[in-house]
Design a protein that fits this description.
InterPro entries: Ald_DH/histidinol_DH, Ald_DH_C, Ald_DH_CS_CYS, Ald_DH_N, Aldehyde_DH_dom, MeMal-semiAld_DH
Family: Belongs to the aldehyde dehydrogenase family.
Helix content: 25-40%
Pfam families: Aldedh
Distance between the termini: 73 Å
Number of helices: 16
Bound molecules: nicotinamide-adenine-dinucleotide
Shape: globular
Protein name: methylmalonate-semialdehyde dehydrogenase (CoA acylating)
EC number: 1.2.1.27
Low-confidence stretches: 1-12
Strand order of the largest sheet: 14-15-16-13-12-18-19
Mean pLDDT: 95
Oligomer: single chain
Largest sheet: 7 strands, mixed
Length: 521
């Protein structure tokens, strides 16, 4: 069956295959609620990772275009912040309906530009949609506090928007991460300038069209494009009050330090090396299939991918079964109905991943399943890497220390749970971790002692739904207000407190001003 058969959107709206596109259109910007063709002199070619055919050209937005986007957002903020919460909520209700309506269209854009399988791309959309759905409950999430602090006097607090905020997004979740930012930012009254990844901006543009159709007014959501020059503009532009960044360590450290030095609020989610600990008492087949899915799904290009399996004691004997499971995964173009994993994002990424696999052998580890050089017959020019498993890995090896961001699982063997905890705690990253066990006390000790921000107990990718927040820690985050959930709303708002005195009698005449520190008692 066609993966598109359930959609209500017209088929012609889709780009449904990996076929060569005859006349690739340039990617537009979205400024003041209009799709705008850039006057850029620099363009970035975007290739379908399964074929390396050109899909579109993405502009490096010009300085004037970048200023125009902020002008539009600044103007819109004046009126958008005054709209009632109920008005914004109604728009958000409509927005979530439209994302559901165009779910397959969004997923098709993701598969074409990013490479992940169509089913996985639908999940990418869903996890972003859930943030928008949760934002619909804003009327009970944004209430302030009130206290009668003295006779006739009360203090109350409000959360107010910041103004124009920016989002700088990575390539690996083209819908989810824009939607981590947009709904909480606009429902709280801010206006947004977004820079999607220059490697796959298509989904963000569809989201912008849907936001407009839902009733988001002109200028509330703008999209500009490009690479470092656009980022430099956003982090230096004084009218932008806050930056949400998700991506690699290098870009994140730079954006965080320069953005905060410029007086902006910055939340930055960075790289990861997520461990899954497999205890000898675990349910073997459930644990292995969960780990294989989390290691190789999305070709390992998830910040919460399991990239290290830690076998404790006898569970090291299960690697053979894991290899058999990994061999069954189908690696091919993401629109193929049987695809389990698609290509990685670029030839450079493939070369980097294969280099790290080679480094493991050079460092004395054993490549027990080697996905290098894999070419699906139908997609000989794609950036494919097959599932790869490396055993005998030790801290200090490049394949252990670096985020590989490909379908590669390294296996470290330890003797005890304490050894496993020590290994994870010594790692510089702290995005996610999982343990597979049937023992409640083991799980309880693990969750207490482990230093990682998102802990899964028999759950391989413990990314919380948006009623919680995405809570990576250690080297996986800079800044202290997490994406989405309560922390996300706090990131996009500032507190205002009002202290009011309404005297119940005004009989006493005052003839001398009191100059002492007011105690409000
Ligand atoms: P990336 O850092 O290359 O790009 C992210 C954004 O930063 C893009 O918009 C890009 O244009 C911009 N950018 C890149 N280099 C820059 C530079 N030198 N100066 C200024 N801006 C720059 O990241 P990516 O490859 O798109 O994404 C993959 C990375 O993102 C992985 O490390 C992954 O772990 C991480 N990630 C983290 C999370 C999380 O929540 N922790 C989620 C998704 C992805």
């Amino acid at each position: 069956a066609s993966p598109f058969s359930t959609s209500s959107v017209r088929m012609v709206d889709y780009i449904t295959t990996h076929d060569k596109i005859a006349n690739p259109q340039n990617t537009k910007m979205f400024i003041d609620n209009q799709l705008v063709e850039s006057k850029a002199s620099t363009w970035i070619d975007l290739h379908d990772p399964a074929t390396n055919n050109i899909v579109t050209r993405v502009p490096q937005s010009t300085p004037d275009e970048l200023v125009a986007a902020v002008d539009s957002a600044e103007k819109a903020f004046k009126t958008w912040r005054r709209t009632t919460l109920l008005t914004r909520q109604q728009i958000m209700f409509k927005f979530v309906q439209l994302i559901r309506r165009d779910w397959d269209r969004l997923a098709a854009s993701i598969t074409l530009e990013q490479g992940k399988t169509f089913a996985d791309a639908r999940g990418d959309v869903l996890r972003g949609l859930q943030v928008a759905e949760t934002a619909c409950g804003i009327t009970s999430q944004l209430t302030g506090e009130l206290l009668e602090v003295s006779k006739d006097m009360e203090t109350r607090s409000y959360r107010e928007p910041l103004g124009v905020v920016a989002a700088i997004c990575p390539f690996n979740f083209p819908a989810m991460i824009p939607l981590w930012c947009l709904p909480p930012a606009i429902i709280t009254g801010n206006t947004v300038v977004m820079k999607p990844s220059e490697r796959d901006p298509g989904a963000a543009l569809i989201i912008a069209e849907l936001a407009k159709e839902a009733g988001v007014p002109d200028g509330v959501f703008n999209i500009v494009h490009g690479s470092a020059p656009t980022v430099d503009f956003l982090i230096d532009e004084p009218r932008i009050k806050a930056i949400s960044f998700v991506g690699s360590d290098k870009a994140g450290a730079y954006i965080y330090s320069r953005g905060t030095a410029n007086g902006k609020r910055v939340q930055a989610n960075l790289g990861a090396k997520n461990h899954a600990i497999i205890m000898p008492d675990a349910n073997k087949s459930q644990a292995l299939s969960a780990i294989a899915g989390a290691a190789f799904g999305a070709a390992g290009q998830r910040c919460m991918a399991v990239s290290v399996m830690v076998t404790v004691g006898k569970s090291k004997e299960w690697v053979g079964d894991l290899i058999e499971m990994a061999k069954k995964l189908v690696v091919t173009g993401g629109f193929e109905p049987d695809a389990d994993l698609g290509p990685v994002i670029s030839p450079q990424s493939k070369a980097r991943i294969e280099g790290l696999i080679q480094s493991a052998a050079d460092d004395g580890a054993e490549i027990v399943l080697d996905g290098r050089g894999y070419k699906p017959a139908k997609y000989p020019n794609g950036n494919f890497v097959g599932p790869t498993i490396i055993t005998g890995v030790k801290p200090g090896m490049a394949c252990y220390e670096q985020e590989i961001f490909g379908p590669v699982l390294v296996v470290v063997n330890v003797d005890t749970l304490d050894d496993a905890i020590e290994l994870v705690n010594a790692n510089r990253y702290g995005n996610g971790v999982a343990i597979f066990t049937k023992s409640g006390p083991v799980a309880a000790k693990f969750q207490r002692e482990i230093e990682a921000g998102q802990v899964g107990i028999n759950v391989p990718i413990p990314v919380p739904l948006p009623m919680f927040s995405f809570t990576g820690n250690k080297g996986s985050i800079l800044g202290d207000l997490n994406f989405y959930g309560k922390a996300g709303l706090h990131f996009y708002t500032q507190l205002k407190t009002v202290t009011a005195l309404w005297k119940s009698d005004d009989a006493d005449a005052v003839d001398k001003a009191s100059v002492n520190m007011p105690t409000q008692s």
